[in-house]
Specification:
Layout: H1 9-16, H2 20-27, H3 35-48, H4 54-60, E1 66-71, H5 77-90, E2 96-101, H6 106-118, E3 123-126, H7 139-143, E4 148-151, E5 161-165, H8 167-180, E6 186-190, H9 196-211, E7 221-223, H10 228-239, E8 247-250, H11 253-265, E9 275-277, H12 284-287, E10 294-296, H13 299-314, E11 325-328, E12 331-333
Parallel strand pairs: 1-2, 1-3, 3-4, 4-5, 5-11, 6-7, 6-8, 8-9
Antiparallel strand pairs: 10-12
Length: 348
């Protein structure tokens, strides 16, 4: 027998002088086959290197037992925690995960969606890239009644469940905290305002300014890709302003940490000169000095809720055309980077 040829139940049946039907039942541990025969079949299957063709049998049942996931980055602690939450829920349900990574590019997201569709995934969990223009690449899933759950970065479309936090509320709490600390010129460093997460946080920022009788100054709104290089550029831009802000709300902890370090290296004191608030509650927020005030964004819980919703849809408990929105609770964690006032005790 050729070494590169897959061993079939017919090969095992021929060696053991059994019928293919008996071998098939034996491999499935069917009680109709006696224990000795089942053991003989299993032993021979192992010896011959037999691999069950689950893919073919699943296709016959119009099911592949796979879930597709599209994420916009992989090096984010938030995304890692979301994936951990998804895996935690799906591990015991017999589903394999196929992960596509868009690298914040619309074209790659489109390619990932097409690839996962042609791999016949039973369901899809997705978070949109920075520059996603439209969601037409998800239409084939909708047409085939393949359930979709969007998380974090979502759009209002007439299909797909959405799992999000209240970004407006989170942006409000971050900015209001800075105002309560006595900040009167509060800057906001964020990303593509076409994405719901950043648009919502900006809206919360603006509402908090208004409620604390502070003007919105467009020159204090900095929009970039939140990368390390962008954080350094933004810090320089802030430091070169004639009227520097005395507080800043940044929508990403890594970017906030780099920004804060850049301020310190330039001789600017945090929080005395400029108070800093980040977003996500990544590990880096607890490592830098001073520790970073941030919004806790429970990624693992978000992944668990997304996975449970998808499994319910695939099981028929919820319509595959569900358009529910699930809102996860977030909270402000106050640490040293924003504490101009001594009336609050920082978290660890």
């Amino acid at each position: 027998m050729e070494s590169n040829k897959d061993v079939t139940i017919y090969d095992i049946a021929r060696v053991l002088s059994l019928s293919p039907a008996t071998v098939s039942r034996g491999l499935k541990d069917h009680p109709a086959i006696n224990i000795k025969t089942r053991k003989k079949i299993m032993d021979m299957a192992r010896e011959m290197g037999y691999r069950s063709n689950n893919f073919a049998s699943n296709l016959r049942r119009q099911k592949t037992n796979t879930i597709g996931i599209i994420v916009h980055e992989l090096k984010s602690q938030f995304i890692s925690s979301v994936l951990a939450g998804i895996e935690k829920v799906t591990a015991g349900s017999g589903y394999d995960l196929i992960i596509g990574h868009s690298s914040e590019a619309y074209n790659k997201e489109v390619a990932n969606a097409h690839n996962l569709f042609h791999k016949r995934v039973d369901g899809l969990i997705a978070s949109l890239a920075f520059d996603t223009k439209d969601l037409a690449h998800f239409t084939p899933f909708v047409q085939k009644n393949i359930p979709i759950v969007f998380f974090d970065r979502v759009e209002e479309v007439p299909y797909g469940t959405r799992v999000i936090i209240d970004n407006v509320k989170a942006g409000y709490e971050a900015t209001a905290h800075l105002a309560r600390q006595g900040c009167r010129r509060i800057a906001h460093l964020t990303a593509n305002l076409g994405r719901n997460v950043y648009a919502g946080r900006l809206k919360g920022y603006q509402q908090a300014l208004a409620d604390h009788h502070l003007p919105f100054d467009p020159s204090l709104l900095l929009v970039n890709d939140l990368s390390e290089a962008a954080a350094i550029r933004s810090a320089r831009e802030i430091l070169e302003m004639d009227q520097r802000p005395d507080g800043i709300f940044i929508t990403n902890d890594f970017c906030a940490a780099v920004f804060q370090q850049s301020l310190k290296e330039a001789g600017c004191r945090v929080p005395e000169d400029i108070a800093v608030v980040g977003f996500n509650n990544d590990v880096i927020a607890r490592i830098i000095d001073p520790k970073l005030t941030t919004i806790n964004y429970p990624g693992e819980e978000m992944g668990e809720k997304a996975a449970r919703s998808l499994l319910d849809q695939m099981a028929g408990h919820i319509s595959a055309r569900s358009t529910d929105t699930i809102i996860i609770k977030s909270e402000l964690i106050v640490r040293g980077s924003s504490l101009k006032s001594s009336s609050l005790t920082p978290a660890r």
